Amino acid sequence: MVEHSPMSPSQRGRFITFEGGEGAGKSTQIKLLADRLQKAGLQTVVTREPGGSPGAEVIRHLLLSGIGGLIGGPEAEALLFAAARDDHVRTLIAPALDRGTWVLCDRFYDSSRVYQGSLGAVSPALLGALQDVTIGAMKPDLTVILDVPVEVGLKRAALRRGSAAPDRFEGETTDFHRKLREAYRQIAVAEPERCVLIDANADQKVVGDRIWLAVQDRLLGWPQAKPEPAATPTDKAAAKPKPKPKAKVRSR
Ligand code: TYD
Question: Is any atom of ligand 1 closer than 6 Å to the C-beta of 112?
Fold first, then answer.
């Protein structure tokens, strides 16, 4: 179980996870959001799962390379994802949040719920037990679920991949990706407090603005939030650093 130092909730960083199927645009949108948060004066760290810490990156290699096929079944695979998460949370995520840094993570435990649970038929009981051990009560403050039609996502993933072979999950059938999309949509419906479902079948800038509005509204407490206008060089020179926003206190 992850231990936390006694820090007031407003001093702690916020934990935002990004989820979605293949080609949803998570990594692009994470970078855009990290830039915006940094411009707002907030320390941020961008990380990913599986991986994100040296130990977890070793497990990532096992899971996503061809070696993964040698692992004996979905339960064993779920244990490996959980082992990677445990290391990542202990060595990177929890210390960063404790320092007041905002953590933006490309995939987190919802990926296990969807890929290993809904699609891999690993029982909710096992996934729940692994979740208790690896993250305890430290749920994300916000989970951004990027939603794109399956055909669009697969096309984007193929473009990004170029001539490289698809990884273990990219190589799955269209039916698999359709079920994946549905499973994410169900999580968004079941946990509206934590999750925001973003229509990501649009221009990157438009999607980025949608996410920024959700972050301002839910985490920064800027209820009248509007997408910021593009800064001109003169604006940049004149811009004063914004005061550190008071984030809403949310239960973890
Ligand atoms: P990655 O190369 O990071 O691709 P993506 O851009 O899709 O995030 O691959 C990570 C893969 O691992 C992805 O297909 C989802 C899968 N995964 C799980 O099955 N369970 C998990 O808990 C996590 C974190 C990822």
Answer: yes
Domains of the chain: 15-226 (3.40.50.300)
d(CA 51, ligand 1 centre) in Å: 10
The Cβ of residue 167 has, within 10 Å, a number of other Cβ atoms equal to 16
Any ligand 1 atom below 6 A from CB of 53: no
pLDDT in tens, the chain (252 residues): 444 444 555 689 999 999 999 889 999 999 999 999 999 999 999 999 999 999 999 999 999 886 767 877 899 999 999 999 999 999 999 999 999 999 999 999 999 999 999 999 999 999 999 999 999 988 999 999 999 999 999 888 888 888 887 766 667 788 999 999 999 999 999 999 999 999 999 999 999 999 999 999 999 988 765 555 544 444 443 334 444 444 443 333
| Cβ of 15 less than 6 Å from ligand 1 | no
Q: What separation in Å is there between the alpha carbon of 217 and the centre of ligand 1?
A: 28
How far does the centroid of ligand 1 lie from the alpha carbon of residue 48, in Å? 9
At 47, give phi and psi (nearest 5°). -145, 180
